[in-house]
Amino acid sequence: MMDKDQAREALASADAAASRMRKAGRRPRTALILLLGVVMMVLTAVYGLLVQPRVPYAVPVLLLLPLLALGIYTATRPVLPRHYRALYAVTTAAGAGVYSLTVTIGSARFSGEPSWWLPGAVLCGVPFLVIGVMERKVGRSAEGQR
After folding, report:
1. What confidence tens digit (pLDDT) does each residue in 31-56 have?
2. Residue 38's closest CA among 66, 8, 2, 18?
3. SS in 3 state form for the chain?
4. CA dist., res. 134 & res. 30, Å (int)
């Protein structure tokens, strides 16, 4: 059985190995993530401000493509620091929740209202910003451990 010092050494060793694997793997794509966030904001705002309420229900589902791309990207990262996978999952789920509320309530009550759709669109882009910051942090920590 391990004592606390041995456990700390084992975790430090695992973190070092994970850092080497991250360096060898693909680099963080912070700019792409932030670009997806801008696309998500623009699509949500355009849908809410310009599209008539009689649009088929499939259109808001298609607007989820940037959020789905973010979820797939974060779920397929080969090596992450501890607890990041859970943070990615919670952030992506929160983004989907915000998007669902924005589109559902906005379509029913606030069609074409900038006071609803512009803040809603910005909130839909927040998960991309949060994950972009986390990606940048992971990239900096990997560079700092060289």
Report:
1. 888 888 898 898 888 888 887 666 66
2. 66
3. CCCHHHHHHHHHHHHHHHHHHHHHCCCCCHHHHHHHHHHHHHHHHHHHHHCCCCCCCHHHHHCCHHHHHHHHHHHCCCCCCCCHHHHHHHHHHHHHHHHHHHHHHHHHHCCCCHHHHHHHHHHHHHHHHHHHHHHHHHHHHHHHCC
4. 9
| pLDDT at residue 23 in the model | 57
The residues near 10 (Cβ < 8 Å, ≥ 6 apart) are 2
Between CA 3 and CA 9 the distance in angstroms is 10
Spatial separation of the C-alpha atoms in residues 95 and 69, rounded to whole Å: 12
Q: Find the radius of gyration of the CA atoms of the chain.
A: 19
pLDDT at 115 over 90: yes
